[in-house]
Inverse folding.
């Protein structure tokens, strides 16, 4: 598949596949730790998504530029060091921009290093594709990751505190589901989203099968 | 119990703030390798072993980097040590148990990107633990990780025999199981506090 892709030009599809069809969280199940840990508010989810996207784009870009110079035997170690460098940059940048967000995200900014999604993209895509295509792909995957974080963050904040981005949504009589902000809530909300997508997919498959059967009967 | 005592640090890392079920670290191997009890336990032990090495190494790295005032390099140093330790474990497993090596597959090198291990190094630094405390913390974290992965594997083996709706099979079911386990572990909050 990789050999075939090399001839293909950069298309919107490169971007969209990362965003939706090969969504890193909902489809590939990569990088789950930050997805569950920092999505108790929408703001944290957004900050984490942007930080991860930045690291992803920069590090895969650099891997792509250096792909002819990195010896095959030590490639994973080289990628990890490149990623760790950019994570250090983000770590200090967020500390400078907003100490509040820095404290809320805690160790999870530094733990971006251990996000298997970034290493996965560097190994599977950036190490054999030219720079332009790698950047588009990284932007797509990053956008998909941010989208997934926002999906979880909004649901958890809405149910757990009755707010979105700190703005009250429900009337005063609403009793917040505190469990949604606690660790079990993260697992349950993500499971809920996966169930929803699996259900949609099954409906589509059933409909496609039914349509196929109908045309077969027509003949 | 005193918050700095070794027994409290161990209990805290293993059960009260379990790395997997309360702090969300190391979810990838938990979802990936917990299908069978036979592979889950060795995976847990391998990860716990790397945690121990990483914790000891991080303690040394902090002293060296502190001496040269190069603290901003700590993250890169930790991850380099963890990657080497994982390489070591991989070679040992490959030499002594080829079937296990094949069963763990891609997840063995992926211990490098197990955030629980980097997490141990980062947390013990931010809590400013001394040598014995760091050692206890990493042992507790390792025990907690083994506990979580074995519990998950046991549950998933049971669920395999149950009649689960087809949409819920796979990851969604595992996440719900993890959620229920996490609920149970919340009951330990305040233990020893």
């Amino acid at each position: 598949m990789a050999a075939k892709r090399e001839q293909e030009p950069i298309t919107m599809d490169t971007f969209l596949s990362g965003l939706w069809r090969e969504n890193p969280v909902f489809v590939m199940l990569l990088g789950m730790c930050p997805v569950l840990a920092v999505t108790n508010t929408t703001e944290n989810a957004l900050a984490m998504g942007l930080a991860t996207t930045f690291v992803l784009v920069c590090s895969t870009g650099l891997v792509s530029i250096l792909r002819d110079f990195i010896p095959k035997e030590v490639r994973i170690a080289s990628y990890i060091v490149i990623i760790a460098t950019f994570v250090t940059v983000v770590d200090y940048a967020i500390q400078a921009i907003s100490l509040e967000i820095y404290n809320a995200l805690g160790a999870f900014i530094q733990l971006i290093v251990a996000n298997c999604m970034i290493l996965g993209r560097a190994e599977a895509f950036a190490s054999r594709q030219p720079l332009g295509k790698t950047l588009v792909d990284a932007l797509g995957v990053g956008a998909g990751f941010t989208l997934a974080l926002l999906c979880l963050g909004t649901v958890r904040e809405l149910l757990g505190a009755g707010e979105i981005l700190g703005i009250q949504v429900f009337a005063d009589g609403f009793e917040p589901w505190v469990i949604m902000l606690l660790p079990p809530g993260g697992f349950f909300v993500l499971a809920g989203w996966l169930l929803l997508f699996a259900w949609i997919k099954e409906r589509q498959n059933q409909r496609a099968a039914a349509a196929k059967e109908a045309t077969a009967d027509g003949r | 119990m005193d918050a700095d005592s070794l027994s409290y640090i161990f209990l805290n890392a293993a059960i009260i703030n379990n790395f997997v079920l309360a702090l969300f670290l190391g979810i990838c191997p938990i979802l990936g390798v917990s299908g069978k009890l036979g592979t889950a336990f060795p995976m847990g032990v391998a990860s716990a072993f790397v945690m121990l090495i990483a914790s000891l190494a991080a303690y040394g790295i902090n002293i060296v980097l502190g001496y040269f005032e190069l603290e901003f390099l700590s993250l890169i140093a930790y991850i380099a040590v963890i990657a080497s330790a994982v390489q070591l474990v991989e070679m040992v497993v490959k030499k002594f148990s080829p079937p296990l090596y094949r069963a763990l597959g891609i997840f063995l090198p992926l211990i490098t990107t197990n955030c629980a291990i980097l997490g141990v190094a980062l947390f013990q630094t931010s809590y400013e633990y001394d040598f014995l405390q760091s050692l206890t913390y990493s042992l507790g974290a390792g025990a907690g990780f083994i506990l979580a992965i074995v519990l998950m594997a046991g549950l998933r083996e049971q669920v395999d025999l149950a009649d689960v709706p087809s949409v819920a099979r796979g990851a969604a079911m595992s996440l719900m199981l993890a959620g229920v386990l996490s609920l149970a572990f919340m009951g330990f909050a305040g233990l020893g506090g």
Summary: The mean pLDDT of chain B is 85.
